[in-house]
Amino acid sequence: MTNLNKQSKQKILITGANGFFGTRFIKTWGQRYEILGTDVGPKAKVALDITDREAVFSAFAEFQPDFVIHAAAIAVTDFCNLHPKAAHKVNVGGALNIGEACKEHNGRLVFISTEQVFNGNAEPGPYKESDTPEPDTVYGQNKLEAEGKLKALLEDQLWILRFTWLFGLPERDTSINPNVVWNALQAQLAGKKMVERTNEYRGLTYVHELIDQFPKVFDLPFGLYHTGAKNDLSRYQIARLILTGFGQEDRLDELLDHTEAPQDRDIRLDTSLLAANGVVFTESKDAIMKCLKEFGF
Ligand SMILES: NC(=O)c1ccc[n+]([C@@H]2O[C@H](COP(=O)([O-])OP(=O)(O)OC[C@H]3O[C@@H](n4cnc5c(N)ncnc54)[C@H](OP(=O)(O)O)[C@@H]3O)[C@@H](O)[C@H]2O)c1
Q1: What is the dihedral of CA 115, 117, 120, 126, to 10 degrees?
Q2: How far apart are the C-alpha atoms of 13 and 20, rounded to whole Å?
Q3: Range of the domain at 290
Q4: 201 counts as catalytic
Q5: If you measure from the C-alpha of residue 72 to the centroid of ligand 1, how many angstroms do you get, rounded to a whole number?
Q6: Looking at the structure, do residues 185 and 155 belong to the same domain, yes or no?
Q7: 33 CA distance to ligand 1 centroid (A)?
């Protein structure tokens, strides 16, 4: 019986398995799917540098994945701007290696892209899939270039998900990245006053809400989807909400200040196409409260 169950499990190869998204994905879905999680660095359980084409092809040949979630990237905007060659090698070259291996081995690919493809657009969001991105950072440009190359390569086996900014808190055996909720908690612990913008708007998505419904992606028509929660609040309003959620409403003036950037920034995504296909997210302000509640605040 155990063997039969094992045989019938679908196989997922996920790159970036040690990352913020990957660690939580594997913890959530490791029983339901047979998952090969790959990454680089000393913590990688299965080492696979995505820039090593030969190694990528041999991992695919051995594992034969049904689905591939390509989450590996150099996702730190400043690092990418400072090291454009290294960023391109991983974010574009690595993605292409994964795409070509998917083509060779018939793996259906989920490529994780980002709202940052719109970070140079003059007109404000929320942006639809039909809007033309104008990225003005290396990271955003890399992701858009990879999207285009993968689309040209994989006609009918590719989903591209452009994520909004994910948030969550540290958990056992997972990694953590800077995000609105964790940043606010760290600021409180460090006794540092937060200064947040009144004219910056981004979608903010609870990482677990995304991961919990991720298998629905495998049933979507192939194509491009803006992915995540709706948010009508500025970064400043969100910070107030989070600090209040942490029980700090009496200390808001002491803990938080506001500023206004010279230019409005609105890189929110219109996620109604995904919602029409049954993948629905709680609005950011409520999702943040849900996260805080889950962690006992
Ligand atoms: N988190 C968000 O809010 C967000 C929003 C929009 C889009 N995304 C996208 O979603 C995906 C997952 O995000 P995340 O937050 O989980 O990112 P993450 O925590 O930075 O994880 C990415 C992983 O990829 C690994 N990696 C880097 N270079 C590699 C290489 N040459 N070969 C194999 N692995 C390599 C990184 O290892 P090192 O740490 O050792 O470099 C890291 O473990 C990324 O593609 C990101 O661009 C994330």
Answers
A1: -40
A2: 16
A3: 167-202+231-269+278-294
A4: no
A5: 4
A6: no
A7: 21
